Amino acid sequence: MIIEVVKSKLHRVTITEANLNYIGSITIDEDLMDAANLIEGEKVQIVNNNNGERIETYVIRGERGSGCICLNGAAARKAQPGDVVIIMSYAQMDFEEAKTFKPWVVFPDTKTNKLVK
Fold first, then answer.
1. Which residue out of 58, 66, 89, 90 is catalytically annotated?
2. Residues 71, 42: Cα–Cα separation, whole Å
3. What global pTM score does this model have?
4. Distance CA 30, CA 68 (A)
5. What is the DSSP letter of 75?
6. Per residue in 32-50, pLDDT tens?
């Protein structure tokens, strides 16, 4: 049996920008992408803690060290700068493998979106 489980999670990052005039996606600081094991083009779900919105889109690489979390295109209507969100990706795997799988969970500084050491 194959099931879907959380693969990566950026827990409580702050939206820095919402760019309606872009073709779509979410721009994420490359440092955060690396820490959460996310790749460009990967499908993610975004949960907005401020208004309850839940959307799916794909990742594009943001400037390393910038703290950038920018919703682009139509997704920009679902959050505004300052909103706190959770970004998750999922993976499909065998049920037995899923029992021992450990997701990448990252808790950045909510004010700066920088990695906490």
1. 58
2. 15
3. 0.96
4. 9
5. G
6. 999 999 999 999 999 999 9
